[in-house]
Amino acid sequence: MNLDIPDPVVSRRTVLRSAAGAGALAALAVTASTAAPATAAPGRTAIVIGTGFGGSVAALRLGEAGFTTTVFERGRRWPIRPDGNTFATFSSPDKRAAWFDNRAGANSATAIPVEPYPGVLDHVEGNGIEAVYGAGVGGGSLVFGSFTPVPRRQDFEHIFPAAANYSELLSTYYPRAKRTLGVSPMPADILKHPNYVGPRSWLEVIARYGATPHFFDFAIDWDIVRAEMAGRKRPSVIIGELSYGVNSGAKKSTDRTYLAAAERTGNVTIKPMHEVFDIRPRPRSAGFVVTARVRDEQGRTIRTVTAEADHLFMAAGSFHTTRMLVEARAKGTLPQLSPRIGNGFGTNGDFLTIRTNPSDDFGLVQGGPGYARIYEDRLSETPMSMVYQATPLPAPLGKAGTTHLVQTHTDERGTVDFDHSTRTAKLNYPYPEGSNDVDRQAAAFVGKFHQRTEARYGRPANGVPIYTRAVGFGSAGTYHGLGGVVMGEAASMDGAVRGYDNLYVVDGSFVPGAVGLVNPALTITALAERTMDRFLGNH
Ligand SMILES: Cc1cc2nc3c(=O)[nH]c(=O)nc-3n(C[C@H](O)[C@H](O)[C@H](O)COP(=O)(O)OP(=O)(O)OC[C@H]3O[C@@H](n4cnc5c(N)ncnc54)[C@H](O)[C@@H]3O)c2cc1C
After folding, report:
1. Which pLDDT tens digit goes with each residue over 103-115?
2. Most buried residue, 79, 128, 206, 532, by most Cβ within 10 Å?
3. Which residues of 245-266 are buried (b: 16+ CB within 10 A; e: fewer)?
4. For residue 142, which atom of ligand 1 is closest to its CA?
5. For the whole model, what pTM was predicted?
6. Which residues cross the membrane (predicted)?
7. Does 315 sit in the ligand 1 pocket, CB within 6 Å?
């Protein structure tokens, strides 16, 4: 199959963009030369590793403040193509959905064979958990479901140390993050469309259960969704297609918000297809030397690039940031890092279930992204939440089942540990199916939900929850891996990584394993905004 995918490494567009940010290139001393850039002011150079939510915030705020900044990203750029063929689709998955893997799919249980390619979804196979991350310029924002909820105070404070200061986030940093991401609630006219019978039915199911719906924002351009409805854009959001990327362009990923603004400052250069593999202190002055391999679409290393800067911001996502630091500590390139790095990996309490054969009509297809969360505070277990997310099944299978993410509080945490035999860091999450808090609590909740919404009306065969790990459900995997360089432990509350000056963490690894019964991207963004405020206040 000829996908006619633009060359991510040296496309004309990339070259032009790079030229626009030529000043920022000064931060990059190419191929093993680590001489200080001549044009950058002393103390005013920075490197950011990764372009997800945290890296995007760091890039913009550094660029605005005049720091000459190089951003390394292992994946390619994904500019939206006018022909609507930027990303793979659920009905026809292909290599664009997988990060250098020979299988592509939303989870490993349902994946299909593909040739290796720098696609958008990276499946990290841990011991006891599969953690899925985005890859590409925009990181997880390319693949995320676009849910951007704010956690309730009591759930946030259940997890975070008091110094994380929910009130400050609520007054300053959540609003700033929302504004810059451009998020908004689902408009009424969208909700009325025939593809959105699912969200409307979900409200009825919630009422039957006896709960209150909590509405939240999405990082979606609703005008483009309207264009999908009118047939002017390729159907994407309106058929629930979000986690391989949105072909219509309706998703507001950070390459189109924060990162675009960062590049416009003229101080920030993004280097796609640059995978960092070595970090060490600069020998003669404060700062770091970072080495990346530049890869082609087949995964071959074309060359290596070495850069140095006064400040280093880790934003490679919770697993890869932690992995790089654990490996640097073990291999002796950053030996003074805190022994706590690698601790506190959590799954955000995620538990995925499908309600099969619901009695309510969820439509022939389910328009996305999803809708309304409920909280259940009355069970003896612990507070939990449940949200409806559109299931991208082709018509008429939309009626066959609805997918729900349940989130619970749990103290269960995994680790990222150095494996001396392979000399790489591995994710360990030793909580087998059926014998862990998340499974026990969430199974009780979805069982009660089935009882109250279907069985008590004499419909025991409707809305039956399925959550076996055998098909990638339950707690088999997480899209919300968090922790590893946790605030107040391996890092200070201001994001400084303990053991080295001028080293910061701005991504999900900073979060103590969960954000509090909601999806984490907005909270990661808000915390990164706060970290950058603190940093710039001191510099
Ligand atoms: C399918 C899916 C759906 C999701 N839906 C939602 C949702 O609806 N709402 C929500 O809140 N959250 C959602 N999430 C989770 C959300 O995407 C993540 O929590 C968020 O992206 C994490 O942000 P981050 O800043 O920690 O880093 P990430 O977004 O993970 O970005 C890290 C970046 O670093 C790059 N990188 C990694 N290693 C290297 C290296 N060695 N060198 C250079 N670059 C590197 C990666 O390619 C990536 O671009 C979803 C996740 C997935 C996978």
Report:
1. 987 666 677 899 9
2. 532
3. bbbbbbbbbbbbbbbebbbebe
4. 17
5. 0.94
6. none
7. yes
